[in-house]
Amino acid sequence: MERALLGSRPLGLAGALASLGREGGLGSRIGPADVVTVEETSRQLREWGNVHGSSGAIFQTAALGVLRQSVERAGDCPPRLRPQLLAATGRLALTLGSNRFDQFDHDAAKTLFGVATTCAEEADDWVLRASVMNWRARAYALLGQQRLALAAVDASDALFSSPWGDDEPAWLAYYDEPQHHGDTGHALRDLAIAGLLPPDQAAERLRTAVAGHPDAFRRSRAMSVSRLATLLLVTGDPQGAMIVAHQALDDVGQVHSRRAASDLGEFARIATRLRAPGTAAIRDRIAAAAGR
Fold first, then answer.
1. How far apart are CA 81 and CA 234, in angstroms?
2. Where are the domains of the chain?
């Protein structure tokens, strides 16, 4: 299923979105206010998702309508605004794609990540390119393609570490150090779980993400801490894994994330198989969280 995430051929953007629903609202002529509309739609959807998870179908449907219109109308955009519109469009596509990925809707996620990739390239938006690289790294890691996954992580690191000086862009308020370490740590964790990479680097990145994410980014924190728990369990630290798993459940109980819940289910199955101390208590908490 994850193989579908790796679509690398350029997409006909408007056509690619045709199967995903219809809703809308940009002006009759594309102007700066429309760029703000796309940016605000992305910000609001991201903030909702970070606190509440990938629920909120009404928000996502409305955001999808804005995305479709911004893609379809990009050709009408004045040249001076086009890079800004494409960058905002790409960030909205990436936000929607990550929500669909969290819901295990991999086909829709592939389409949306493809839109984000094309927008990032046309707008030459560095953080968007770094974010796309992170998702590609995760997909390659899930397929066990170590070389390609590590190359994508290295490319993302290089983009993130670029010096900005006094021209630091506004998006760094979102794509900060915890976000970058969490996004890349997910890919490295999958390689470590598969025995293709020592666990230390993945664990360090995930710990950085968990420690740095405030409550406003609860979903991101929940996903990183749940995956860190499984990494520690599989690589020989069951006591530390149980402590981290309980921490994960503190967040998962407050946010709707199928991905984080699935990761904790995987943790419980592995803990049962390994007969790790504390398994019964953690399974009870996971079952209680799933029943909410």
1. 49
2. 1-124, 146-212, 218-292
